[in-house]
Specification:
By secondary structure, this protein is of the alpha/beta class. It is built from 17 helices and 30 strands. The strands form 7 sheets. Strands 1, 2, 3, 4, 5, 6, 9, 10, 14 and 17 form a 10-stranded mixed β-sheet that branches.
């Protein structure tokens, strides 16, 4: 940890990133010591951000107090009594604030000169709907010329390998594909230092990883604990854990472009960056033996529990883990491009729906046309840029909703309602999504995905009066079974394009769209529970597509007949809407506010 602490004092770096296993000493030696050193030597307002309130108050705050009391120079500068709270310490005339990932207000407060983000991967990517916690912290330090942001975490999910550097001979991590780990994405943006050891037998330096740890085939967890050995990739010697203390004492960080000569790291890291990033294998922990690490992994593997295996790789070894899930490759999506262009409406389209995903600075949308046997065509996808707390971008979305696609308008638009929920003075759910859906009631509908439910779509009325009673014609929120609709999208992606029910995209659909629509994979846990794993950072178009599909199901898309045909007598009748048909009022009868039927669009 000493080189990491020295990097904090290096003016060349604005950001420090540490990805490592558990029980590596990072919380005490790195975070607490750096806070104390900075407050004593160069006082600036400081902010510590932990993953949860209970961790901050019951684990980290006592360590901070112990650190302050252990140094006379610090304790003399510390205000006690009413000036001291669990989450605020005044030291040397500057505040040290302790916050957690759910306290968005604290993250948007006064400027600080030192910000520390602990266990980044255990935090949401959107804190209190204010945005990424890292971006919020970096905004806080921007006014300090020597401001620093320090990130630490055990990594989580991603897919990567190692590659030998032909110039130095070291095996380094490659770029992680489909990386769902925030700390690893930050690590890749930096210098990419990795902790390397010398072999006590041959003297060659190597970077310890899980794949170098071995035990006899068929070992029980206890046998793996007793017989685990680490193989030196330089000479093949199987090393015992007793060598670790010596190896750590002579270890050093090596970045791509560097090599070891005369016991020192030579060369300059290839990355030109103001981020110093460090990775340390959990095998280097002085408090946990290699055998104990092997025991933890073997026990998880024998149980067949994906969660336990992930915990072992993440915490015991500090390495990424990818749950085996199912999703089409994005190139499969790209290969489905057909010779029509965005904005064109193929002949088979009889209904048009849209799905909208709401982000802080833009709206992602998909417009899809539907025909017989749920055959569908992507008519348009895109982003409407603008702060979604302001009205402008919602006016743009209204213009999209009112546009014609060929002779048709959008029948129903579903809008993700998860962004910034709140209530107005009448206790009605209130945010820009709900405002928009009230303006286009029965046409635009708020929706929210849930992991699972008995029916694919469940409605609830969410407007209540001052007495708490539900308002009969108030706003409706649709709860959608996200597993049902995401699975439908992925199944149709692999549907043959020349078969009834095919799923089509235009020739100018972007690669970004193709990648996002398969950005999550479906996995089944040992318990039988289904989980969707986010493999890429951006998955907005997948959300838009499943919202558009849900909107089609709301309008009985499976009952559409081939063009030119109608239903048999007694089954009702439906015909395409003429281009010149006068629009009915949106606030008429029916529970969704339309003039006919439950959706009011016939």
């Amino acid at each position: 940890m000493i080189p990491v602490m020295r990097a904090e004092r290096n003016p060349a770096y604005k950001r420090i990133v540490v990805a490592c296993g558990s029980q590596m000493g990072k919380t005490d030696s790195l975070l607490a010591n750096l806070i104390g050193y900075r407050l004593d030597d160069d006082p600036v307002p400081a902010l510590y951000l932990g993953p949860t309130r209970s961790f901050v108050e019951s684990v980290f705050e006592p360590r901070v107090m112990a650190m302050l009391r252990s140094a006379d120079s610090l304790w003399r500068k510390t205000l006690t009594g009413k000036a001291m709270t669990r989450t605020k310490k005044m030291v040397g005339g500057v505040p040290l604030r302790l916050a957690w990932a759910g306290s968005a207000t604290e993250l948007a407060g006064d400027a600080v000169g030192l910000a520390l983000c602990d266990e980044r991967d255990r935090m949401p990517d959107n804190v209190g709907n204010e945005g990424d916690p890292g971006e919020l912290l970096e905004t806080r330090v921007a006014t300090y010329p020597d401001g620093k942001v320090i990130y630490t975490s055990t990594p989580t999910i991603g897919n990567l390998d190692v590659q030998t550097d032909p110039e130095t001979g070291f095996d380094h991590w490659t770029d992680a594909e489909d990386c769902g780990s925030p700390i690893w994405r930050l690590w890749q943006e930096g210098t990419r230092h990795e902790w390397a050891w010398p072999c006590p037998e041959c003297g060659g330096y190597f970077i310890p990883r899980f794949r170098l740890l071995s035990w006899p085939d068929g070992s029980t967890p206890g046998q793996a604990r007793r017989k685990a050995r680490l193989g030196c990739p330089c000479c093949g010697t199987l090393l015992e854990d007793t060598a670790k203390t010596w190896m750590n004492r002579h270890g050093m960080y090596i970045a791509p472009g560097q090599w070891v000569e005369d016991g020192e790291a030579k060369g300059t890291p290839r990355a030109d960056t103001d981020t110093a990033s460090f990775w340390v294998s959990g095998l280097a922990s002085p408090w946990v033996t290699w055998g104990e690490r092997a025991q933890q992994y073997v026990a998880a593997a024998r149980a067949g529990d994906q969660n336990r295996i992930q915990v072992a790789l993440n915490t015991a070894f500090g390495e990424l883990f990818r749950i085996a899930g199912e999703a089409p490759d994005w190139r499969v999506v790209a290969d489905k491009r057909e010779p029509y262009r965005i904005g064109e409406v193929p002949n088979g389209v009889q209904m048009v729906t849209a799905g909208v995903d709401v982000q802080k600075d833009r709206l992602y949308y998909v417009v899809r046309g539907w025909g017989y046997r749920s055959e569908s065509w992507l008519l348009e996808h895109g982003e409407l840029w603008g702060e979604t707390e302001k009205d402008t971008v919602w006016s743009d979305l209204g213009a999209l909703l009112e546009r014609r696609f060929g002779e048709r308008r959008i029948t129903t638009m579903l809008v993700d309602s998860g962004y910034r929920p709140g209530r107005d003075s009448f206790r009605r759910p209130q945010n820009k999504v709900y405002e928009f859906c009230r303006r286009y009631q029965g046409w635009a509908i708020a929706a929210k995905g849930v992991d699972s439910q008995e029916r694919p779509i469940r409605k609830s009325r969410i407007d209540v009066n001052l007495g708490g009673a539900t308002i009969r014609n108030g706003l409706v929120l649709l709860h959608l079974d996200s597993d049902h609709f995401k699975s439908w999208v992925h199944t149709r992606i692999e549907w043959p394009s020349d078969e009834p029910g095919a799923w089509h995209i235009p020739e100018d659909a972007t690669d970004d769209y193709c990648q996002q629509v398969v950005a999550e994979s479906r996995a089944v846990k040992a318990s039988g529970a289904v989980v969707w794993i986010q493999n890429r950072r951006d998955n907005h178009y997948l959300d838009c597509e499943y919202l558009a599909r849900a909107a089609a199901e709301l309008n009985n898309v499976d009952h559409l007949q081939p063009r030119g045909q109608t239903r048999e007598k007694g089954q009702g009748r439906r015909s395409p809407e003429p281009a010149a048909k006068k629009q009915q009022p949106r606030n008429g009868g029916g529970w969704m506010g339309g003039p006919k039927g439950w959706m009011g669009r016939r």
